[in-house]
Amino acid sequence: MLDNGDICAVTVHMHLRSPIVVTIDGWSSCGKSTLARQLAQRLDYLYIDSGAMYRAITLYFLRHQVDFSDPLAVAEALRHIHLSFVWNNLLGQSEMHLNDENVEQEIRGLAVAQQVSEVAAIADVRTFAIDQQRLMGQHKGIVMDGRDIGTVVFPQAELKIFMTADMDVRVQRRYQEMAQKNPSVDLQEVRKNLEQRDYLDSHRIVSPLRQAADAVLIDNTFISREEQLQLAWQWVKDREGHSS
Q1: 3-state class (DSSP) for residue 45
Q2: How far apart are CA 130 and CA 27, in angstroms?
Q3: Helix (H, G, I), strand (E, B) or coil at 61
Q4: What ranges do the domains of the chain cover?
Q5: Between β-strands 142-146 and 46-49, what pairing exists: parallel, antiparallel or unpaired?
Q6: CATH code reported for the domain at 21-236
Q7: How many angstroms separate the CA atoms of 7 and 59, rounded?
Q8: How confident is the model over 159-184, as pLDDT tens digits?
Q9: pLDDT (tens digit, 9 = 90+) per residue, 139-161?
Q10: Cα separations (Å) of 145 from 9, 148, 189?
């Protein structure tokens, strides 16, 4: 049986575990999604892949030949897009669904990768996605990764992480990932795509990629996934006790 002292201790412990919002931003192929998934699983938080949302929108535009430069066409297309994350029990992860169709594999292809930064730079597209992202995080207890999550979507997040890595390392990571699905993928084409995405992400007028002033930096060029997970997990533990 718990006495009054034990009850007080339990109450304090519960307070110290107040859930927070964790944002992970950074360059392409820095392992943002990997860290976000692992961290969310360890914390029992909800993981939201914001990049998958932009990729799904891009896929819809490509399928329906939407003219990216036509604001009316873009606005009309967005009216017909419904995005949702559906849990896959077999894989133990959530997957992106576009209008109730599982498009998790298709949105990872090079065709989408080559266009997603351009689509994500469109103001109406970002407004559409950001509104949904904020609704998903209104109860906290989430880990969300992307390009502007800590700077625009959740500027008041308790923990903001910014990830980077050496370009050569990033190219090899993306190449190995894509080669598993398409053995004929060209290494130089992958590099060109990453360089293009870096430029577009950091130079777009709407919500450019940048490190928030209060974000903590992870350069994972020379550290393992386990090391970066432990680092991020400790940061969350330090902040959970100070959340409101």
Answers
A1: coil
A2: 19
A3: helix
A4: 21-236
A5: parallel
A6: 3.40.50.300
A7: 53
A8: 999 999 999 999 999 999 889 888 89
A9: 899 999 999 999 999 999 999 99
A10: 34, 9, 25
